[in-house]
Design goal:
The protein has 82 residues and is mainly α. The chain has a domain at 1-30 and 52-75. It has four helices and no strands. Helix 1 (2-25) crosses helix 4 (53-70). It is elongated, with a radius of gyration of 19 Å. This is Secreted protein.
Length: 82
């Protein structure tokens, strides 16, 4: 019972650290909505929304690499593009 509790705490700690990394990489300063252009351009409104997931993933990876470098671990590389 005690071992299981210890394992759960390790999982919780790992998730908490991962959450802090994600918040550090794309925290409120980066997630705030952009100010609206005045006046609203109809062409801009019809433009497709750019998927920002790749940019966020890149910042998260950069933050992880920074933290890993600070504690002396090897760098991680991004997943290959298929």
């Amino acid at each position: 019972m005690r071992e299981e509790s210890g394992r759960n705490m390790k999982k919780i700690n790992a998730l908490a650290i991962l959450g802090l990394i994600v918040l550090g990489a794309c925290g409120p300063r980066n997630l705030a909505p952009a100010p609206m252009a005045m006046p609203m351009d109809p062409a801009a409104a019809a433009a497709p929304v750019v998927d920002d997931n790749a940019a966020i993933a890149g910042r998260v990876l950069q933050q992880i690499n920074t933290l890993r470098g600070n504690i002396g671990l090897s760098r991680c590389s991004p997943a290959p593009r298929w």
